Amino acid sequence: MMDARKLPLEGLKIVELGHYIAAPFATRLLADLGAEVVKVEPPDGDPVRGWGSSVDGHAVWFSVHGRNKLSVTLDLKKPADREKLLALLVRADALVENFRAGYLERIGLGPDVLHAANPRLVIGRISGYGQEGPYRDKPAFGAIGEAMGGLRHLTANPGQTEYPPPRCGVSISDDLAGMYCAMAVVAACWQVKGDPAAKGRVVDVDLVSSVFSLMEGMLPEYGLFGWVRQPQGAAIKTAAPTNTYPCADGKWLCIAGNSDLIFKASPRWPRTYASRITAGGARTWRSSMPPSPTGRAGTTPRPPRRCWKPPRCRARACSTWPIARPTRISASAAG
Question: Which helix (H) or strand (E) segment is 72 a member of?
Fold first, then answer.
């Protein structure tokens, strides 16, 4: 009988040449699933060790990306340390790195060299624009992935041009690229381990494509119909009431009445609008409701007097939740 405590990736050996977010995020996912991850840091350490708040000189943020990992320090500019890295990679199943495209080749550690040392090595590479193409040599952080991938266009507020399109609040480009890299590395390792004659693979992930992959029908809508999807703010164009509404107590309530079933099951909406729902269904009528961000325009309902309590919402099967700050998130996780 298999040990219930055994994690699915136990036995998989990963070496991380990661800094900042993308590669450390990818290997964090693999480590959480049981992989042995050896994080190789420069002599001064990963820059994230010095980011944000800290406890006794240790950055809180690094405790998230560095968890479940082993760590060594190597100066890859020194030939002796590069040899030590190759010794690590001989026993590894995969390498994950997020240097600027071509950096490993410039220091003499390109895929040809790595595969000469370990022919079955899977190499996961994360960069701003990919290892090939006209922008490969340009630097890029997560914000560039959001901008070029189309996300910043959609996060703007409708009709407002005096304010910049906001960042979503987390390093979404890096996190997405890290997730894609982790999935691809696991898939490649599965293929290599399942075939004794298989050779190593190179996984090429970039921030821009990772963000662009989330743009749903934006490109086919433009290609087929010439439509340019516009920012929608907190609403969804094809569903109502689906928005974030202000409450009298100064808080915000997110309502997601996307389907007829949820719409009819919620405690207030059906009573307010039951007479307007035609035989064609609630969705037909609701899709014409003006999705005002204030919740006050046209037939869009007035905001509740206060944020509904989550237990009450769960009991009545309504799809609502107050906008959660860390205090509420912690309380929800604990309760």
Answer: strand 69-73
